[in-house]
Every structure is written in C-alpha cells, then in structure tokens.
C-alpha cells in the first residue's frame, strides 16, 4: 500500500526536475494531486498511477490469479495493459513491446534500460514469496529482466528483496540496507551506490538527491532512494513528501522507499487519505485481502 501510495503521490510532479517550480506551485506537497505540471502524464487524473504504478498493479493481479509469480501470465497481462494504453510509454516499454511483437519470449524480450523503475515494480512479489528468500529473489529478478534486462537493475532487484526480508525480520532500515549490500558480490556497483546513499543520511533531502541526480538511471535514483530510507526510518509520510519535493523520477524512488519503510512502520503509517484517494484503492484492497 505504501508503494502504491508513493506512486500516486508522485504522479502530480513526476519528471518535473525543477524542484523550485514544485515548491512555487504547491508549497509543501503533502497530498495527491492531478498532474498539472507533470507533462508526461497529461491523461492521468488525481489518484491515478504513473506507468510504473499501472505495471505494479498488473503484477499484483497476476500474482493473485496464479497464487504466485508466473512469468508467462505476467507477460501476457503486461502486454494487454499496453494494447490501448493512454498513459506514457517509456523507452524500456517500447523496446520490450517491440521485442514481444518480433516473437521473443518473456525471458528474452527485455530492454537494456538501466532505469530503476524496472526493479521498483517488484514490490507485490513480497506478498507471495517472502517466506522463501531464494524464490523471492529469483522472481524479483525475472519480473525485472522482462523489461529491464541489465545487470545493474537486476542486482538492484536482488538487493531490495534481501533488504525487505531483513526489515521484515526486525532489522532497522539502515541496518537492513547495509546487511543486504554486504551479501552482494565483491565489487558490486549496487553496494557502492548504497554506501553513497547511506553516507548522505544527514544531508537535507533536496540537496542529497540533487547531488546524486534526479533522473531515472539507477546510478542516480538508487542512492537517492537509500538516502530517503536512512534519513526517515520512522517517518514514512515525511520520506514520501520529501521525495516528491526533490523532483525528477520521484515515482521509482518513492515506490522502493515505501516498500522498505512500509514494512518497517506498518499500514497505519500511510496517511489514510492517500490510500482512499487512490483510484485503484478498492481494487488493490480486494486483491490483497484475498491472499
């Protein structure tokens, strides 16, 4: 729920890189809003998701229908989502759709995109496979590779699966992040990015994210996500507000921040109005209640 709320919160300012413009237009943006200045999402309404959230919802539906992750089912539903889609199609989506149309399998259709959004979509898998770490990690990597088949993004999905499990087992978020990074292979690029994010814990958020870069690429978005988790471990609401106020790809950062801090703080930490104003709230609640 925190991950979906993070995406709905981001919609109104997603990919607006001028943080001063966000502040000038909204002040402190602590509520869902229509994408009045988010030009890539002009067809969306208040409470809707970005294309990241829409794909995450399709994954949740597939998991619920199959009682677990089945790549072929997810691939079919993912393609059906974009048959008459009126939202934004990013490069990774266009490339993957083209590869499917050329006859490639779900295992071979993925783009070489390094965008964090491919890994961020993994969140609902935890509801079905968190009781088996190896399966959880494998499914997280599979769903990522279907559209973002790049080693950096795949390892990022692996990392967040580990961090989520450690958080669920009672580790505080910063400890969970450090421990998960330590389990990655020696010389891991993801581990280095995690270290950068953790080292920024005491910095003001807009300054930290501006320094890392506000863009979609994992090299920029991952340390920004780690910063948010480490700086606001007990305050999910503030973390997600500061995330969107920093501008750029606030959806991918927010989804993964919401994932870890949602596990740590629980459902009550997500403002009720954020949830109830999500267009798909009842749909998501029905799917999760049926697990």
Report how far apart the termini are: 14 Å
Strand content: under 5%
CATH architectural type:
Orthogonal Bundle
CATH-defined superfamily: ADP-ribosylation/Crystallin J1
Outline the low-pLDDT stretches.
none
Q: List the secondary-structure elements in sequence, H or E.
A: HHHHHHHHHHHHHHHHH
Q: Which class do the helix and strand fractions yield? A: mainly alpha
CATH class label: Mainly Alpha
Average of the residue pLDDT scores: 97
Number of DSSP E strands? 0
Radius of gyration, taken over Cα atoms and rounded to an integer in Å: 17 Å
Count, helices: 17
The count of domains is 1
Gross morphology: globular
**Helical content, roughly?**
55-70%
Query: How many strands, which pairing sense, and closed or not: the largest β-sheet?
Result: none
- CATH topology group: ADP-ribosylglycohydrolase fold
Report on this model:
This protein is an all-alpha fold and 291 residues long. It has a single domain (2-289), classed as Orthogonal Bundle (ADP-ribosylglycohydrolase fold), CATH 1.10.4080.10. The protein has helices at 2-10, 19-26, 51-66, 71-81, 91-101, 117-120, 126-129, 133-145, 151-168, 173-182, 189-199, 205-212, 218-231, 236-245, 250-265, 272-276, 281-289. The two termini are 14 Å apart. The model has no long low-confidence stretch (mean pLDDT 97).
């Amino acid at each position: 729920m925190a991950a979906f709320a993070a995406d709905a919160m981001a919609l109104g300012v997603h990919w607006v890189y001028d943080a001063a413009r966000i502040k000038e237009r909204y002040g402190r943006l602590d509520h869902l809003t229509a994408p009045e200045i988010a030009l890539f999402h002009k067809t969306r309404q208040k409470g809707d998701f970005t294309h990241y959230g829409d794909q995450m919802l399709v994954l949740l539906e597939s998991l619920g229908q199959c009682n677990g992750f089945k790549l072929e089912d997810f691939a079919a539903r993912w393609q059906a989502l974009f048959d008459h889609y009126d939202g934004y199609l990013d490069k990774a989506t266009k490339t993957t759709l083209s590869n499917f149309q050329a006859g490639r399998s779900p295992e071979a259709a993925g783009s070489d995109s390094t965008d964090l959004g491919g890994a961020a979509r993994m969140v609902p898998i935890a509801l079905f496979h968190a009781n088996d770490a190896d399966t959880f990690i494998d499914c997280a990597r599979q769903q990522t590779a279907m559209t973002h088949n790049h080693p950096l993004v795949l390892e990022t999905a692996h990392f967040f699966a580990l961090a989520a499990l450690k958080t669920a087992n009672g580790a505080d978020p910063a400890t969970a992040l450090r421990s998960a990074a330590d389990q990655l292979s020696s010389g891991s690029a993801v581990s280095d990015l995690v270290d950068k994010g953790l080292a920024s814990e005491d910095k003001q958020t807009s300054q930290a994210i501006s320094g890392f870069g506000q863009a979609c690429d994992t090299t920029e978005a991952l340390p920004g996500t780690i910063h948010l988790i480490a700086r606001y471990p007990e305050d999910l609401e503030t973390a997600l507000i500061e995330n969107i106020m920093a501008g750029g790809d606030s959806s991918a950062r927010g989804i993964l921040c919401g994932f870890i801090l949602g596990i740590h703080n629980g459902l009550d930490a997500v403002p009720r109005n954020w949830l109830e104003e999500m267009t798909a709230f009842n749909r998501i609640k029905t799917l999760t209640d049926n697990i």
